[in-house]
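## tool: complex_structure
## caller: assistant
## args:
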Amino acid sequence: MTDQGRLDRLTSMMRRRGIVLPSFEIYGGVSGLIDYGPVGARIKRRVVESWVDHWTSQGDVVEIDSPSITPKEVLVASGHVGEFNDHMSECRSCEGVFRSDHLIDEKHPNPDSLSGSEIDEVISGNDVTCPNCGENDWSPARPMNLMFPTTIGAMRSGREAYMRPETAQGMFMLYPSLFRHFKQKLPFGALQTGRGYRNEISPRQGMIRLREFNMAELEYFIDPEDPPVGDLSRWGSPVELLSDPEGEHPGIHNITFSDALNSGIVRHPTVAWFLARTWEFLVNVGIDSTKIRFRQHTGTEMAHYASDCWDCEIFGEYGWVECVGIANRTCHDLESHEEHSGTNLLRGWRQYPDPVLVKRDVLSPNGSVIGPIFKSKSSAVSEALSQLEGIPDEMPFELGLEDGTSVQITSEMVNRRNEEVNVHGEWFTPHVVEPAFGIDRIIWHIIDHAFDESGKEGEEYTILSLDESVTPYDISILPLFDKDGMDQIARSIASEINSIPGIRADLDTSRSIGRRYARADEIGVPWAITVDHSSLEDNTVTIRRRDDQMQIRVPIDVAIDSLRMGTLNGLF
RNA sequence: GCGGACAUGGUCUAGUGGUUAUGACAGCAGGUUCCCAACCUGCUAACCCGGGUUCAACUCCCGGUGUUCGCACCA
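## result:
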């Protein structure tokens, strides 16, 4: 943590200037919910757009968009209903509340797997005392799910559902469509940005822990036997990696991504690629590269779905904060959804380099004999015959059926046949590498890192030195005086600039010019055009650069064209 | 969720059981000013919500909500 004053000034500024404010404030506010105001919403839009661009520019990643409301079955399969569901036990003596599984960690090999009543049995059978007051007087364990429950449809026929705790399930639901879209070839990825909902017990720290928050997640589907290996040599500078203290390379490493992979600190090549691309994104939107580090999860803190996980942490006013999680979710989700839904569409096809000729003996059922004998059971008999591994040498033999019963098969019922087939490939469940971004946390740190109070000529002065890709406005248009024709020129410049797609100008006409520069600097507007008396005579304006307050004079059309082309810096 | 502290214009704040509830900054209108929060005049704008005590509550009490600190929690 750094000095408290700066955090207060920063959050005050963000309220005052309409960046981020508490929601529903006239009704007292709700903790864990925030609004982006007129300035903040533009910053957020640009951060999200940069993020989507960053990943879709890879060419094998597409954007999708799916509902927040998610039927319960989906979240049962994903594990969120079960695992996401911590039990809490309350001490009747001191009213302390504790996670039940933590209380019985040492009394039971796998406390996570227990139901509420089983937990209570373990607690009462083991003389578990309250860590706070030492008493042993527990109320029954209560499940405390962090998801917001809701109902789809009205009345009793409604279907149980939850607000999604992550956007990732949307990508898994759409896997069959994505597989077709990518011509049935891995690897490919899909991403979406949107809201996620977690009913946090006690959200604190402003926009760091929210109950409704903006996520941006990418699911990258790969063949685990042929994981894509990106070119990591593009990133030459070392990055801070804190590897698993229980792993093979414990400790802090200052190392390039490429060396981290080669030395085995990062275990998976595709994960390494996403670490590097994540770092690149963060730096591109203005995160200070010296305040980024990656931390590998230990086995015990890993989410239920992940087999390997790195957090990207960013340092700011709240210390090191996890802003991105990069997880190798393996085949967990797709496999579980296949099982729960009964579909077989969540697979990838692995083509063999050369077809493999497979010879095998099969017993093909003779329907005209089997039918009359087994009647309603006959289709089960045929099915069992086709599943048979290893053909019995002697007839008759006992054939086990799926329902547990068995039947006598005689030689008249089957034809022994020698089958030869060319096998061209095989189905498998793809693995998933997932970078999951907390957009609100990233926006916080972008603004934190840009918030520069170093002052100007000894006076207090703040500049929000945002990267140009995420500023709320691209430029301010300032008539030196709001009269004498300067107002007219300023208005027409503003409207011409605003007609350029994706570029926004802010026209500010009130109070002194210095005050207006200060207002623009405070919210990070990188450029200002000032219309003055000379503009009336020769159609020139001055362009002011936020970061050094330098000014140059150019013709109006040069200013606008350079803004359009993004080449204003070249004029200085 | 527990315990403590706190809650006054947009922001930061002063203060009182009873008169018109401070001040600064920001904002608005006008004046002035030929480029970096200047100055002058005027203006807008607040006691978190609900109960209770009291002749009278922004002030005291209780509850709620929010903020914050510590504990717990953070998949």
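## assistant note: Chain A has a mean pLDDT of 86. The domain at 4-71+151-332+432-438 of chain A is CATH 3.30.930.10 (BirA Bifunctional Protein; domain 2). Handing back to user.
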